[in-house]
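Provenance

Sequences were taken from public entries as deposited. Structures were produced by running a predictor on each sequence independently, with no templates supplied. The record for DNA-binding transcriptional regulator, AcrR family from Nocardioides scoriae is shown for reference.
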Amino acid sequence: MPDPGARRGRPGYDQATVLRRAIELFNTQGYDATSVGDLARDLGLTKSAIYHHVPSKQALLSAALDEALDGLGAALDRAVAATGTSASERLRTALEQSVLVLAEHLPAVTLLLRVRGNSEVELAALERRRVVDEQLAGLVRAAVAEGALRDDLDPEVVSRLLFGTVNSLVEWYRPGGPLEPQALARTVASLAFDGLRPPQPHPPAPEA
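Predicted structure for DNA-binding transcriptional regulator, AcrR family:
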């Protein structure tokens, strides 16, 4: 996989700046509709200057998707590996950490969620997402098995709904607004887990 950071940057710009602007253009115009020339004009550079920073447009896409997936993968790995905690606690941590990753890397995560497998880079990203999804579903199944979540709902569906809720945040959440990422993560987790708690048995009716 090409590394956009493998080339030395020109004065005034670095690979990180080029990547940030490329992600913004990919999100607003679409990856296929965005050319290296578009990126060069946006930055006020020549196309040859862009290629001094990065080897190709595809390398920019790969780096952007890796940014999102590396963050999500690391957050999930930490949650899964946590010792001395219940499955439901690990699931809650995974959910909250996913929200924090989304807030910190919102443009890259937004781009990831729009990937449809139209290239080898996109197919590789989708495969990494599948692995993440399977880990999340495993946490849900473990939480159901320990009795922390309802057992009358399909764990796979629960996992998709939980993290579909997280993914939907890209449509309206904007960093720097009145809602801090930590507060957002707690709100999402509280809403999800309050709604997923197994029903409590009714106390027996008092004898007449």
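The longest helix spans residues 120-145.
The radius of gyration is 21 Å.
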